[in-house]
Amino acid sequence: LTYKATQAPIFIEHELKPKQAVALTTTEPLPSYGSSSYKLFAVNEGKFHVVNYNSEQQISSFYQHELVGNAGSTRSISAKGEVWVENTGEESIYIYGPAQYLQVKPIAANILTEKTLAQHEALQIKSTEPLRSYETTPFKLSSASAPLLFDIIRYNRSAQVNDFYADYVVNGKSAMWSVISGGETVIENKGITPLTVYAPSRYIQFTAVPNGLIKQTVVAPNQALKVTSSEPLNSYETAKFKMVAQENKHLVDLIRYNQQGQVVNFYPQYAVNRNLTWTISSKGETWLENRGDAPLTIYAPAKYVAFTTIDSGIILKATIAPQATVRVTSSEQLNS
Fold it and tell me: Of 85, 105, 276, 333, which has fewest CB within 10 angstroms of its CB?
C-alpha cells in the first residue's frame, strides 16, 4: 500500500451568486446510461432554476424555483450531457463536485423563459430543439390556484392538427404539455386566474397570438349544420371536429361527403355518449343534424374549420308498409 501526496483539490467549489447561471458538465468515464453527481448547498435557503440536457442536447427535465438549504441537494449530470443552473434567490448557492471531473462554465442568465396569460390571452409555442420527427419538446403550465382551464391545439410540422381540446381542465396547479418536432402548440387561458407558461429558453419561442383558437357553435334540436375545413391535407387524410352532448346516447344524423360531393358514409341517429370526435374528408364536408332533445355543442380549430347552418332533414327516411314496394333513385354525381 502506497500513498502519494497531492496539492490538487479533491473537490471543486463554485459560488453561484443571485442572478447568475452556469453550465455543468463532466468528464467522468461513464457508460451511456450512467450519470455523475454534484451537490448544491445554501447557508439558509437558496432558490434556483435547473435544466437537464442529455448527450444529444435534448431536454431531459427542467424545474422552476427549486429550493435548497444547508442540508444540501445531491443531483446528477447525464453521461456526455450537461446541466444548467440559475440562482433565482437572494443568497448565494454553492456547487460542489469532484475536481477531477466536474466542469463549471458561466452562461447567460434566464435559462427558463416564461409568459403569463391573463384570461382569454393566447400564446403560440415553437421549439428549435434538435429532435427526431416523432419526438416532442416539453413545456409547463402553472397557476396560483386550481383548476387550470384552457384551450389547446397541437400542430405537426405540416401545419396539420394533431390534437385539440376545448375548455381542458387540469385539477391541480400545474401541468406539462408539449410541442411536436417542427410544429407548434397554441394555448388560450380560459380560466379566471392568470396562467404561466414556461420552458427552457435555449429552444422555446413564445409569440402572442389572437384568442379564439377554438371555434364553437351550439346546434339546437332538429337543427342541422355543415362543417368544412381548409386544413392542408393529403387526399386520404381527414380533418377533425368534436361533439359534446349533455347526456349519453344523444342522437345525431351524420353524412360525410368527399371533395367531389359524393357520399363517403352516413349514419342515421348515431349515439353520442357525451363526447365524440368526427371527421371531414380532405376538401369535403360533413353534415350533421341534432336528433336529440337537448342542444349539441360542436367545436374545432378556428384556423381551418367553418360552420354553416343548413336545412334540417339531411337523411331521407321512409316507412315501408308490409307488402309495399318502393323505388329508390339517386342524383349523386358518380363515375359510370
Answer: 333
